[in-house]
Amino acid sequence: MFVKNIMWTSFLSAALTVAAQDSIVNPVIACDTLEYSISPVLLDDITVRASGVVRKPDGRVLHPDEEIIRTATDGIDMLRKMQLPRVSVNPLTNEINIVGGGTIMLHINGVEATAAQVSALNPHDILRVELQDAPGVEYAGAAMVIDYITSRVDSGGSVAVDAFGAFASGRWASIDHFSAAYNKGCSAWNVNVGYMGQRKDKWVRDYEECWNYPEGSVIRREMGLPVTVGGSGLESVVNYNYLHPGGHMLNIRAGLDFNYVPNQEEGDRRGLLSISDGDEVVSVYEHTEEKSVRPNLGIYYLHKFSGVNSLTFEGHSAYLASHSLHQYMEDLVGEESRVRGDKYTLNVAALFEHRIGHRAVNAVISHDRGWLVNKYSLAGNGVVRIDDSKSSLAGEYSDRFGPWAIRGSLKLTHSSLSQNAYKIARVFLLPSFWLSYRPGQQWQFRYGASIDYRMPPAAAISDIEQPIQTGLVRRGNPHLKPFRVIDQRLSASFDCSYVDVEAMLDYSDEHSPVMESVVFDDGVFVRTFFNQRSFRRLIASASVAVHLLDNHISLTAEPVLTRYFSRGNGYSHSHSIFRLGLGVDFSYGNWLAYGNIMSSPANKMYGEEIIEEKDMNMIMVGYKRENWSVHAGVFNAFMKNYWMETRYLSALTPYKSKAHSDRGSSYLSLKFTWRFDFGRKGRYVDTMGRDIETDPGILRGNK
What we know:
Layout: H1 2-19, E1 46-49, E2 53-56, E3 59-62, H2 66-71, H3 75-82, E4 87-90, E5 95-98, E6 104-108, E7 111-113, H4 115-119, E8 126-132, E9 144-152, E10 155-168, E11 171-184, E12 187-213, E13 216-225, E14 227-243, E15 249-263, E16 269-275, E17 281-304, E18 310-330, E19 333-356, E20 359-376, E21 382-401, E22 404-419, E23 422-437, E24 443-454, E25 465-469, E26 472-475, E27 483-495, E28 499-511, E29 514-521, E30 524-531, E31 534-548, E32 553-567, E33 572-588, E34 591-598, E35 604-606, E36 609-613, E37 616-624, E38 628-635, E39 643-648, E40 655-661, E41 667-681, E42 684-685
Parallel strand pairs: 6-9, 26-30
Antiparallel strand pairs: 1-2, 2-3, 3-8, 4-5, 6-7, 8-9, 9-42, 10-11, 10-41, 11-12, 12-13, 12-14, 12-40, 13-16, 14-15, 15-17, 16-17, 17-18, 18-19, 19-20, 20-21, 21-22, 22-23, 23-24, 24-27, 25-26, 27-28, 28-31, 29-30, 31-32, 32-33, 33-34, 34-37, 35-36, 36-39, 37-38, 38-41, 39-40
């Protein structure tokens, strides 16, 4: 503890000492002459801070200042340095999450992109970042959209490498990206390849569970033994973009992704099992292996009319081939199941945007289709075929009246989900509403509400049964129904030259949600799915960012309290989870350093399952030149034991599982970036492709 306190004190002292030295005041970067957004949303922009923050009713626009551009190593690192409210960036994995949960979409010039593509961006090419935390109808299902608006040269190109590694005895993690771009006139070609892999030994999972049979209870205690877990993934994209001088844009993307997990972190274990009704100690072995390949193709076309009107067409298709293996044995007796999955998806959409003064009208028509075929080896070679279809027509209107701004939308959706002889088909009318009030340049208050209907997950309706372990199985339920979700949010924010503060209250109410329960059937415990009574979630969160000495030093704090209320057909549970994220970032000259305490998005409750994970931390110090940088530091500094705990509150089979490292959890971290530019001239708008559906819809056999 003494050593830990000394290092943190030294780190913070160094930050304040370096930042306090004489520094040159950097001029604010002027706004680019391009129109404010490729996909314009709401209106009424007012710059409220010298660093270029522009508040909008549905979010904010950020022009990164010269210090952030100069010190950021890539697009993901720039996002971390901007310290956006509710946005959590994990430097180890490059994962971007929303504090409190929700789906986040990344875009580059209005077109959806992956984190690997954002990571390949040159910070000097990023003109601004547009954040929408109240997305419109064109972003169905997203809780937040982050759009990078970039410049592009009309000749020459670049080659870039970004390598990150974390190493410890018997463990390692690696994230590596390679990108190349070439531009000529109105055309641009881009290639991106990203690799992520990890391996860790001495991973242990302890279990304590109780099986409540009609005639009595049996307690099962399992002492975990060390195993090795890990996996790897490769993402590759070839992208072509054509930008007409009149603003029309054509983008074509082809991608090929591979994933291989030979030993799953939550699906591999060894242990010694003691059962209360016997004296014998039983050996337990579980193994889960998964691999997949996913080719995909996307086409995006933007047509500009006179004025600010535009028409956008998008088409995306993908094929996902997946294989999974699950083995479970007690004293070398058990079962093995294999699943082969094939999933085809097609998504097409058209968006028309029209503006008259402060008013904006959007119209969207879309169709999403998915075909899924899963072959299960343990169900008499059973084959599950699922057809998923959704067609939507939506309209949206927004306007501003002095300090007030409103946005309302109405969507008509036809959704169908069929499996063999079972079929669900429904028509839904989905409204949403947002109201924003800005009494001055520094304050903003917002309230929003929406109604949505969700179809049951493909895996949940599968008419199949998979073994979990001896005496316990998982079974699908093809008789599930759609359920209603009402979301509401109230937020207040304050900005000035040195401080950004935002407080939010989010409330979600799911009526008859699809959640898992356990029943006892024919001598076996069955984990299956039902439409339960309700699930409610209340999130109270805040974000405070303090910027000092011309952004040479920034301090952030994000407390989040989440309260859950889960009511099933035979149970009622409530639970609270509190997390606090802290960060410090500073730079002086070519020297950089930052430290973060990060809360994992795994901390959550749903149904009768609660997952909580120990907070992670990172300390990094680096040196950056114009075309290269090198960083070194520690991930999970002084952490003796990293853990993830799962509790299942079922009345029939309650259990507590704690997965943890059987050794110290600290890693030595190294990061290196290098970029070579040649013949770059001119500035245009760039674009990239979008990510495609990756869920294979397989009913899992592991816990």
